[in-house]
């Protein structure tokens, strides 16, 4: 099974995409339309997030396994420690392996109440993602990735400590890192600099959500845990009553963000897709990140 590192060694820059597990048949159909539409563009990998509830977990596992079994895509399965004992985590990892999945994003997870809640580890589980990296890495030949936070994780006291935590996850065996959504490329680049200054050179992918609607802006703020810069919100506010104007302006801004990151030599851009493909395909086309590029 191809790993994320194999894909990043084949060519750069690339793009990758993130999906969430569908909650019902209708959402599943939407997701599979997006997967099939993105497949010919040859993303380096596609990842599926891991939810907190039992049924959501089953859907993550099923969806990732189906991507591994029925598509040409390289899947990355997310795994969080929320509510899981170590024995249960080992079981899920075994299930991933049995379905041909070799790439795992090892994450602590948010408390059931969301990012603002207080983290309570399972009595027999993991406390920090670093332990998850070791657990997954100790179970076989997995390519393990971790989450990174350009603005610092919301619980962290300061950027330096948070960067050090990321370094510890990498030293524990993580081979790549995917960053939380960040509106300002400079914030991402500063994180990259902080890592480089500590001798870490694993691929670090910036996270971008195409800004097509007010909902995508709200969702980006929610996920990133930081307010959008006033220049961006001010500009997009002009299109409050004009959805197509908002989409055009948002897509231009997203494209400019990606262009800046690519000009700085990032190995690829990781798109948070909300299980839709149209905007991602459009931006991949604008940036020439699709397969035609490798043939050029
Ligand atoms: C790319 C990406 C994908 C994600 N996918 C999912 C998903 O699929 N499902 C989901 O529920 N959530 C997901 N999240 C959200 C994530 O679960 C939360 O942000 C969570 O609060 C932190 O997870 P982590 O792996 O970064 O944890 P950690 O690395 O453990 O960090 C959590 C906090 O603990 C601190 N810390 C870390 N190690 C130590 C230590 N040894 N001692 C003291 N403090 C420490 C960190 O500084 C940080 O403040 C994702 C986030 C990103 C960026």
UniProtKB/TrEMBL annotation:
It catalyses: (6S)-5-methyl-5,6,7,8-tetrahydrofolate + NAD(+) = (6R)-5,10-methylene-5,6,7,8-tetrahydrofolate + NADH + H(+). InterPro entries: FAD-linked_oxidoreductase-like, Mehydrof_redctse-like. GO terms for molecular function: FAD binding; methylenetetrahydrofolate reductase (NADH) activity. Keywords: FAD, Flavoprotein, Oxidoreductase. SUPFAM superfamilies: FAD-linked oxidoreductase. Its cofactor is FAD. GO terms for biological process: methionine biosynthetic process; tetrahydrofolate interconversion. It comes from the Bacteria. Pfam families: MTHFR. Pathway: One-carbon metabolism; tetrahydrofolate interconversion. CDD domains: MTHFR (cd00537). GO terms for cellular component: cytosol. Belongs to the methylenetetrahydrofolate reductase family. This is Methylenetetrahydrofolate reductase. It comes from Jiangella asiatica. The lineage of its organism: Bacteria, Bacillati, Actinomycetota, Actinomycetes, Jiangellales.
């Amino acid at each position: 099974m191809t790993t994320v590192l194999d894909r990043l060694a084949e060519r750069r820059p690339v793009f990758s995409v993130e999906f969430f597990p569908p909650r019902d048949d209708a959402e599943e159909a939407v997701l599979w339309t997006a997967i099939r539409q993105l497949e010919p563009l040859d993303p380096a990998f596609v990842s599926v997030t891991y939810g907190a509830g039992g049924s959501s977990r089953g859907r993550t596992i099923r969806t990732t396994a189906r991507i591994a079994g029925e598509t040409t895509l390289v899947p990355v399965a997310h795994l969080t420690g929320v509510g899981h004992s170590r024995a249960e985590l080992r079981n899920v990892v075994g299930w991933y392996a049995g379905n041909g999945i070799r790439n795992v994003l090892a994450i602590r997870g948010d408390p059931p109440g969301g990012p603002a809640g207080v983290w309570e580890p399972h009595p027999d589980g993991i406390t920090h993602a670093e332990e998850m990296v070791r657990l997954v890495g100790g179970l076989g030949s997995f390519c393990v990735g971790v989450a990174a936070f350009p603005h610092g994780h919301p619980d962290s006291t300061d950027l330096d400590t948070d960067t050090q935590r990321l370094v510890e996850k990498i030293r524990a065996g993580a081979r790549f890192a995917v960053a939380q959504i960040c509106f300002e490329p400079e914030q991402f680049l500063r994180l990259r600099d902080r890592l480089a200054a500590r001798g870490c050179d694993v691929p670090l992918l910036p996270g971008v959500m195409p800004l097509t609607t007010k909902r995508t802006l709200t969702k980006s703020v929610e996920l990133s845990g930081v307010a959008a810069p006033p220049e961006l919100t001010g500009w997009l506010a002009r299109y409050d009553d004009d959805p197509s104007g908002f989409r055009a302006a948002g897509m231009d801004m997203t494209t400019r963000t990606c262009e800046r990151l690519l000009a700085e030599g990032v190995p690829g851009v990781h798109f948070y897709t909300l299980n839709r493909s149209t905007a991602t395909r459009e931006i991949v086309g604008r940036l020439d990140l699709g397969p035609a590029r490798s043939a050029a």
